[in-house]
Each structure stands twice: as C-alpha cells, then as structure tokens.
Amino acid sequence: MKKRVFLIVLDSCGVGYMPDAAAFGDEGANTMLSISQSEKFCADHLRQMGLANIDGVDYLHPVDAPTAAVARLAERSKGKDTTIGHWEISGIVSEQPLPTFPNGFPQELLDEFSKRTGRGVLCNLPYSGTKVLEDYGAEHLKTGALIVYTSADSVFQIAAHEELVPPETLYEYCRIARELLQGEWGVGRVIARPFIGEPGNFARTSRRHDFSLEPPKKTMLDYVKDSGLDSIAVGKIYDIFAGRGTTEHTFTSGNTDGMAKTLALADKDFEGLCFVNLVDFDMLYGHRNNVDGYAAALAEFDGWLADFIPKMREGDILMITADHGCDPGYTCSTDHSREYIPLIAYGKPVKPVNLGTRVGFCDIGKTVMAYLGVPNEAQGTSFLGEITD
C-alpha cells in the first residue's frame, strides 16, 4: 500500500492566543473566533471532522462522533511569522526570532542595495501593503525609485509598478536583496510586490514572489526527498523553504487555484508528501482586517473538502493545520498574531482521537515522517502511535 500525506496549511488560521501572547502584543487575538461570528462562516465538514472538539474551540459546538484526530498545538519557536511557523512544522525550532526592523533598514544596507540595483529607495518604514502604494506609488512612477518597506514580521518588501519595473526585473532586485540580507540582517523573507494602476487606483497583482532565508538545518522536505519519496510543494511552500527539499513544485494564484491543483494531485500516482499553503486567508483577509472575506474563504475550503475526501486512497492521510494567527477582528493590528494552531488528521489509517493541547508545531513533521517511514533527526515528537492502531 502506497502512503501519501496531504499536509495543508490554512495560512494564519489560528485558534486562540497563546499564554505568552502579551509579549507579542497579541493578547486577546483569536482568528477562528472572529471569523465564526461572520454570516459568511460555514465549517460543516471541518466540524464533523472535529474542529469544534479542539481545545478552546467549543464555541463552534463540538460533535459527538468526530471523524478525525484533532489537537491544538503551541509554538515552541520565538516568533509568529510564516517562515518560522513552517520551519517548525517541518522540524526546526527557532530559539531566536528572526530580525525585524521597526525603524526601517540600516542606511548602509540600502546604499549597497541602491548601488547594485541602480535605483533609489522610497519609504523604508513598516507599512501596510496597500497604504504604501497610496503614499509612495506616484513618487515611484515619477522617480523610478523602489518602494522598500517592512512590517512587524521579518520581511524586506519591494513594491514596483509592472510597467516601470517588469516582474522578472523586480525578482532580480529581490535576489540582490536576499544576498545582502544575511547574518544580523537576515530577514525571513524578501518579498516582491508588483502592482499596476494609476495614482488613486493602484492594485497589487498576483505575481508576488517570496525569497526566503535558507533553513539552517534539514527539514521534513529534505528528509522525505532524500529517502527517495515524492516531496511536492504547492503554493508558496517552495519559496518558504528556498526551493530546498522538493521533487516537484507548483505555484498558485490564490486559494481557489491551490485547491484545484491539490485536487488534481490527489489523482496522481505518487508516494510521499504533498505540502500545500493556502495564502489568501493571511494575505487578502487577515492583514486587511476583512472578517467576512476570511470567513468566506474558510467556507470555500470547507466545501472543497467534499470533493477532495472521496479521492483519498487507502493509505492517504490528510492533515489540516496553520502556521500562526492573523486575527482579522483584532483591529488594533493588521499583523500576525501569536496563536495556537489547529490540527485535524483524517484518513482510513487514522482513528478519531483528541490529543488535547501539545507543545510544538514540530510534532506534525515528526508524525508525517514516522508515517512515511522516513529516518530523520528533526525536532519534535511523533504522535503517530496515538492516532493509528
């Protein structure tokens, strides 16, 4: 029997603030609770699997006989961003947070960046990705200088108009920044943010691209690939891991495209791991405090499960989780939130048990590798024996 794991990250879909959330400015954040109050919210399939049976999610009304194993996981790493969250899922606990730049990046760095790109720099402050276009887009078109900005996360973002700086050129500028941003400047991600439009009507396009810091150790993806199994990345997984550890990858234009490509992969005869990131929850709705949009996106995913589950084979396990929170109802911030993440594990090999609250996103990767029979030295503790007979 071939074994396959479909590991799907609902990007930022946290289930309540962690005990140390106050240190991150996130006490009170609860992404799932916020979206559950929207009229757009629907999670019938997820509830039947056991979403409402997860610790702290009882406001969704637990079911008597869930069909999946469930757990609530606390993050061990010192962070709340995409890179650190995915690294931990995959077996790397980050004892130190990745650097952030709340006052902007050092002039020394920007001078070298400008020298190598031949373009000036605008902004250099933490900023909303849409507001920065309103405030600096016209000057960018007039001067040709690149809009460089950051956020509360460990990111170096470069926005440029596609008619002035073609996306491929913008990607090259990002590669230059990635070379410079190492060591004490080693942010988790350099992000290309191409946009179009005219002053007063700018809009970001789907040609965003992330250039991540390379993981410091072997990850679940590396171990799976090195064992001779398939390691398939869908969405921004390839970017998050700097292209490492994959045997195949496909980029997506958003959740709908990502779900369609995952559905197609369910029909493919592979053995190993399919690792999926659905980014719209975070990018389009969490960071924009759009509760209804976030709720509708979860409802779309919930409906998609009705198409995916019948395609699952005898040896398939579906794992649904998140990488951090980004509570759209937490209006004092548009940043990621320090939250527990849900875990739902479903498939014929899985028995419906509640694992309570566990410490370590890394237990996910450890369990995936245990199921696939992949030798590894990753951090974490497998719970495979608790969810299978």
Structural commentary:
The chain contains 13 helices and 14 strands. The protein has helices spanning 31-36, 44-49, 82-89, 107-117, 131-143, 167-180, 220-226, 237-240, 255-266, 280-286, 291-308, 362-372, 384-387; strands at 4-10, 69-74, 121-126, 146-150, 155-161, 189-198, 201-204, 209-212, 230-234, 248-250, 272-278, 316-321, 341-346, 354-359. Strand 4 (146-150) and strand 5 (155-161) form a beta hairpin. Helix 4 packs across helix 6 and helix 9 (255-266) runs parallel beside helix 11.
How many runs of DSSP E, i.e. beta strands?
14
Distance between the termini: 16 Å
Query: Low-confidence stretches at least 5 residues in length (pLDDT < 50)?
Result: none
Give the radius of gyration.
20 Å
The side-by-side strand order for the widest beta sheet comes to 10-9-11-1-12-13-2-14
- The number of distinct helices, counting runs of at least 4 residues, comes to 13
Write down the secondary-structure element order.
EHHEHHEHEEHEEEHEHEHEHHEEEHH
Mean pLDDT: 96
* Fraction of residues in helix: 25-40%
Describe the largest sheet: 8 strands, mixed
Query: What fraction of residues sit in β-strands?
Result: 15-25%
